[in-house]
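User: Let's play a game. I give you a shape written as tokens, and you guess the letters that built it. Ready? Here's round one.
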């Protein structure tokens, strides 16, 4: 099996060198290797800030919510493939159900929150405040997406749920993410990210992945 890919700056890239071996939890055989050696992490963050962030910030809350729902529906169509890969991590079907369908359920849940927000890329924070005695001058606080990128470092026992429940939050809020799953089960995370990328649902720069320890 070829080395796992790092999905960064809009492309799948394998790191230099042999990388870290990743094992089948049941028989101890090497499944693949993962490496981030040679990656330009400054460029990865710059791509998220300059490509992913502006696009997400321009989207309205309903648009971001519908994006999450579309992603959840797409991933649900590939569940059986994910279950087969999850088995290699040492997870039972019940374990995998929590990780896979629980993670997708988070996308659905956060997608539904779009109904609580206006059809705008921002929302009002409280009521307008009068700032003058004559009532001719007032102020209004706005909540807007942050400029930047979220960095997610996730645990080995939830390679999918850990990623999806976190990106659901930042994508609805209009912020891109760079995801670093625990290496030992990262081949499952990588399979899910490949389907996310294949779907074309997320805008460029909204999600990046590097599954191996940073070199």
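Assistant: Ready! My guess for every position:
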């Amino acid at each position: 099996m070829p080395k796992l890919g790092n999905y960064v700056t809009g492309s799948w890239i394998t790191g230099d060198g042999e990388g870290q071996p990743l094992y089948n939890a049941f028989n101890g055989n090497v499944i693949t290797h993962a490496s981030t050696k040679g990656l330009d992490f400054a460029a990865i963050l710059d791509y998220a800030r300059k490509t992913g962030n502006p696009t997400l910030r321009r989207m309205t809350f309903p648009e971001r919510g519908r994006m999450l729902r579309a992603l959840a529906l797409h991933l649900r169509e590939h569940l059986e493939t994910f279950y087969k890969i999850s088995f290699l991590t040492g997870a039972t079907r019940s374990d995998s159900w929590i990780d896979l369908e629980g993670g997708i359920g988070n996308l659905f849940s956060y997608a539904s929150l779009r109904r609580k927000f206006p059809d705008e890329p921002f929302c009002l924070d409280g009521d307008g405040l009068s700032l003058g005695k004559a009532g001719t001058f007032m102020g209004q606080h706005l909540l807007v997406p942050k400029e930047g990128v979220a960095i997610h470092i996730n645990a080995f026992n939830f390679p999918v749920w850990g990623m999806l429940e976190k990106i659901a939050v930042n994508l609805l809020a209009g912020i891109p993410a760079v995801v670093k799953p625990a290496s030992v089960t990262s081949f499952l995370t990588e399979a899910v990210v490949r389907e996310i990328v294949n779907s074309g649902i997320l805008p460029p720069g909204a999600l990046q992945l590097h599954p191996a320890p940073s070199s």
